[in-house]
């Protein structure tokens, strides 16, 4: 097959499914396979992935294992949080935002190795295939993408296991049966979907939640924390400066302890169907609340309303996989421009599943007690101005009223 | 003064401030005063308002006391909730949505009585003056509006009390001192602002919250309820059909008990300044979560995303006082069109300040387990379609990639 | 092939290409073919299509020929013009708006005949396949769509002609060679693309324009016409009431004579590539100018700006083929709501390629000479109101100025 | 009057009206007056303004006369044209875009001189007062603004002339009577409004147009020109490089000669009323057409549609006077980001009032003949991809169709 890939970079987790893919690529296409395994904070050891790859015959120089946590948070998560991005009113985009970075590294590694293709383990029904591939095509228009789940005939659990056994791929005991749901995790969130979650009319079982304690089990006393922002990004917790990934890791621990960031959602996939997911975004949920809190005093109304207005579109672009698109970059330029003064500290109360802003302070504050006070304002504001303001705002409506009276005799 | 009002309809609460206004209108303008007192669910008896008005010399036929709760919820609150409207990411618009109805009745009563003016007790710094007046001008372009707080010289507490005493207006003991904050309430929410809340860097004192228990004092066991919607509006709780105002009253009680719906916010007023408010919207917060929940399965993606996109603008229009404007009505037509199938039942978990959707069911559901399942889907969806879908979605980005490669040699 | 169509409704023009498709459907699938030929104002006789279909063996009861001009203009073109819809700043959507109606009739005829499929002659590179098919799937989710150009191996002109000859399909002499460009026409417009137009750096040859005289050849004297609107739709020209299709036909003649409505455009197709087209929309161009003219005096600012804001999205939906989608219907509800008072008469000057509004009159006008006049306005407007209006509009910017001065010492 | 200005910078044209204002400021407030006269390309000599100011007693060091044409075009006009900004579908914002620059210089000169106020000659009914003052307040929150037309009692022509005579202000003969309409001009446009134009149902008299020949008098032969862009701005005409102001001046001459850029419009003022204006924007109209032409081949669809979507809001901000606002700057960041590759050359045909793009060329072109061709495309595009693309785009609509069939038995 002239179109067959010769050298493929595979997004490799070390788990059973991507090990099968690895082998399938070798047998189906006879191509050289390069593995790429990234630490995005999913909370798994990476060493086993190296050993597994070696065992499957990958040469050491073809095994790439990288800790991308700082880059992930600094260049993807934080820019997105500057926008207060939520998809469909609720979802913090934890899976969506990780995909472009993985594709970027896949393509870069392919270019280093002179590989002509990349491969991923996402299915043909989901969003992740779209995100991986659109990002890859944007970064290298000539790259081939192999998506085995859309191609092969290993369409049942039984056939997958047969293939694994026939190819000496070790199968962990707990992988013999089917998982009751499937999971994706990174430093920002854990998502669960499928199987036991497929009926949106049934409450998700408790055991689905893995990253946060049940609010009922959270401490009976609230905890207060202070998050400090500089130009829209969190840089310190309770006064202690931290790197990007460290801030998010710390917020995850606060959130986990207090049962914060759980979401049970039916969402609309880009491929056209609805799906039900359970998300846990402990640190991200706290961060969103805090970022809104600091914007409340540092962001002008015009800037804030413009951000609110374009946010759904920005979130949709990320959800649909268009991180590396001109329009996402244009919106990012708009958002980043707004964050110049989003600097200051927010105090939050964490309690039983909720993170609430209770106070905020900033040298860059636009809040003017002199203007708003019910007390004597020493001339900061002339209440009589309001009469003219109202009359001219109402003028066009008065003209409508006059017109309507005139034509309805 | 030829421009002086001859007959004025006053929005009259029966409290000290509007009683002073009543007297001031009589003395300043020598005009006839008609009082209008509405029950919007603020939780106060209206009989005292009648007695107080009579005592201040208002003739019985000039005293209007009305229970507007059903109209308020049915024609204002529920249409707004169809839009999932929140202002600046957080505020459920509890005060904003009540003002147009009050203005509507003020203008209608003025027309019945041949009055040439209306009057209200809102200050010159806030949003409410704008909302009252824009609505009034839209409904009757010729109406005069008297806003005593922008006109008179009773600019200190001392002078107000002196005026009251000089005019035999009774002063309740607890009104001698100044309230530590000011309150507005109706069936949808209670808002508190001013005085002790003026420093947004200070946490709001516990005693500010009046309508909900502290989450820490809420039951240690979660409670589950089911809300049934028809065409976007809630019509039953736990299977029991209820009128509009009754649904909201019942949800308020659930919310109160579980400490749900508290918000501490710095917001941007239409008149140009930032202000800090504490809001309690117990039933509304539950309703918003439930409405989003039922939309998740009954609303198409295109419809839902369009609603998300125009929502901030719709909320801003209500916040700014433009309920009776063509553009609000146009947006309402768009929103209402989307709600035809928003019918079904949502199950929520209420616990310690949080209301979370845990399940939803609808005959109108667009969720297709056949399409989304990880299991065999019997041909509902051909995964190979995704390849073409992705490639054509990526095509323009590939062309950009090619262009960029071409011009950067 | 179990998936093969049994009975197919074909969008049939009577031309060579769709005659080949007809035969190919019969031979490839052995299926019964029903033809549908619509008069959308493309300016061709339909009788030959009937004869041709009969000659190709279609039974008389399977031949559908319909005059859809009134429905086309009334239910598709005019609703779209209420929105002042233009795609990418220029294109009046003449082809896009015709496709949904054709699909609607194809699906309805399929249902009448118990057919399981429809077929069209659009290629795999263009927008029309998308428009035909999305509309069809929306109206009948179970329908099959056959798009021969994406399936067959008749991929060159030579092979097409061989197939035609082998199947006794008559070939008109002027169809032996390849056309220098391809054309689509209906009552709203004529579009030309391909071949001689493929280089956007080359000016389109004069002979491409077929529907309008060259502006240089248009009359040396301008002509003035008056168009009367009711609720946003044109109902009379120069005082003479006309049906929808008759109005558009008359405007086309005015436009043709004065060389109005030519457009040379490079546009972005939904499938991801850019294409260059030449459009002639004589009547539509006049209509758009006139509709804007009548809206200028009858539409409120809030309504008009909201329409302007959502227009690009509405146009994109139509361009991309989503006429029968919830979001298009929601936007239509918004637009139609705005047109209640768009009633009145516009006077236009037509001259050498340009249609310009020169005067407008309406009983529903919101224009108030009393307010705008430089002369004495008898108190309609108090100029002092403007000071307060400006000061409160500027307040937030002043607070920014103060903040910036404070933090930059 | 403690609030009275001590030193005022006046926007001074040298004409009768601003000379009266100058004198009135001196007599009313007894303040020192500094004059500022700018050449924005309005086509008037500035020397007379100096002499007039001197004659009215202004000290030489208090007279500022500046040629701002390059700054005006480079920093205001061109950034705006990058957005293809038009207000209400038609107006190229020629007056709006000049005001912020004048305010900027007024404020800067005030700061140099330690002046506490600025003054302008705009009336209390128009947009210009808003634009001048919002810009001034944004740049210097402490500045006072004197708007004599809102303050004084010189409310009739007779009284103005009396004041002029009483104060030895020379009155040109042609200023004795009232002008039949009022004019504003700069390098971008000339606007005319008032008096003879106040009835929008009457065609504007020919003599109103001053800057362009009547299309009927324009050359009978079309003229072709080529405009070259770099990053969204025009830099050369017919291959000849020019400065910003020189390009616009040259385009104005082309436009003037061919009668291009006339507009008769009823627009919505920010202060709430409709007004009728006649605009002539010869060079700007050509520039807008050309900029759209070059964007057609160099701008990606996602980028272009996002620009189209936010354009009305951007234009409204400029129209309303919010050039110096965070949201305008945010939108500018978005727009500028899009223009990186908007580089190339557009060929236009100018004839009898129309400027039409007929060809475009760019090294940065995204147009791919290989993809779009009807001929063999050598595998650039696989038409079969379209089937999957369409099916997944239609999937949600199919699910709606299924739902609707299910619930309507």
Folded structure, characterized:
The model of chain A has no long low-confidence stretch (mean pLDDT 95). Chain A folds into three domains: 7-70 and 93-167, HUPs (Rossmann fold); 182-299 and 341-361, Argininosuccinate synthetase, chain A, domain 2, CATH 3.90.1260; 373-407, no CATH class. Helices cover 42% and strands 19% of the residues of chain A. In chain A, helix 10 runs antiparallel to helix 11. With 409 residues, the first copy, chain A, is an alpha/beta fold. Chain A is elongated and about 85 Å long. Chains in contact: A-B, A-C, A-D, B-C, B-D, C-D. Chains A, B, C, D: It comes from Paracoccus alkanivorans.
List keywords for this structure.
14 strands, five-stranded parallel beta sheet, Rossmann fold, alpha/beta, 13 helices, five-stranded antiparallel beta sheet, 409 residues, Argininosuccinate synthetase, chain A, domain 2, homotetramer
The CATH topology of the largest domain in chain A is what? Rossmann fold
Largest interface: A-B, 102 and 102 residues
Reading off the top of the CATH hierarchy, the class of the largest domain in chain A is best stated as Alpha Beta
Q: Could you tell me the radius of gyration of chain A in angstroms?
A: 26 Å
CATH architecture assignment name of the largest domain in chain A:
3-Layer(aba) Sandwich
Order of helices and strands of chain A: EHEHEHHEHEHHEEEEEHEEHHHEEHH
Q: How many domain units of chain A?
A: 3
Low-confidence stretches of chain A: none
Trace the largest sheet of chain A across and list its strands: 3-2-1-4-5
Percent range of helical residues of chain A: 40-55%
CATH superfamily of the largest domain in chain A: HUPs
Q: What's the helix count of chain A?
A: 13
Strand content of chain A: 15-25%
**Quaternary structure classification:** homotetramer
Biggest beta sheet attributes of chain A: 5 strands, parallel
């Amino acid at each position: 097959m002239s179109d067959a890939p010769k050298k493929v970079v595979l997004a490799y987790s070390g788990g059973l499914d991507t090990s099968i893919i690895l082998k399938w690529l070798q047998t189906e296409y006879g191509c050289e396979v390069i593995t790429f395994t990234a630490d995005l904070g999913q909370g798994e050891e990476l060493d086993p992935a190296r050993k597994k790859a070696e065992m499957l015959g990958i040469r050491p120089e073809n095994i790439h294992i990288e800790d991308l946590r700082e880059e992930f948070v600094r260049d993807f998560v934080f820019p997105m949080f500057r926008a207060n991005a939520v998809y469909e009113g609720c979802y913090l985009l934890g899976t969506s935002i990780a995909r472009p970075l993985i594709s970027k590294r896949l393509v870069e590694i392919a270019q280093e190795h002179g590989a002509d293709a990349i491969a991923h383990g996402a299915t043909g029904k989901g969003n992740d295939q779209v995100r991986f591939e659109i990002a890859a095509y944007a970064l290298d228009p000539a790259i081939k993408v192999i998506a085995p789940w859309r191609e092969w005939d290993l369409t049942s659990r039984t056939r997958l296991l047969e293939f694994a056994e026939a190819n000496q791929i070790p199968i962990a005991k707990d992988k013999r049966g089917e998982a009751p749901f499937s999971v994706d995790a990174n430093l920002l969130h854990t998502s669960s979907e499928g199987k036991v979650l497929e009926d949106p009319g049934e409450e998700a079982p408790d055991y689905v939640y893995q990253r946060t304690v049940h609010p009922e089990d959270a401490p009976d006393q609230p905890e207060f924390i202070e998050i400090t922002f500089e130009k829209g990004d969190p840089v310190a917790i309770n006064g202690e400066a931290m790197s990007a990934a460290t801030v998010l890791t710390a917020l995850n621990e606060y959130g986990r302890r207090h049962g914060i960031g759980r979401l049970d959602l039916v969402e609309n996939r880009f491929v056209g169907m609805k799906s039900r997911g359970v998300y846990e975004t402990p640190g991200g949920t706290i961060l969103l609340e805090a970022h809104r809190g600091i914007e409340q005093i540092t962001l002008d109304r015009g800037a804030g309303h413009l951000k609110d207005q374009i946010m759904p579109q920005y979130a949709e672009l990320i959800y649909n996989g268009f991180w590396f698109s001109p329009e996402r970059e244009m919106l990012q330029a708009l958002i980043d421009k707004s964050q110049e003064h989003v600097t200051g500290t927010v105090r939050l109360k964490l309690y039983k599943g909720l993170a609430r802003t209770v106070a905020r302070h900033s040298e860059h504050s636009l809040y003017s007690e002199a203007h708003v006070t019910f007390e004597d304002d020493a001339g900061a504001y002339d209440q009589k101005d309001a009469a003219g303001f109202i009359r001219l705002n109402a003028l066009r409506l008065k003209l409508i009223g006059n017109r309507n009276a005139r034509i309805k005799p």
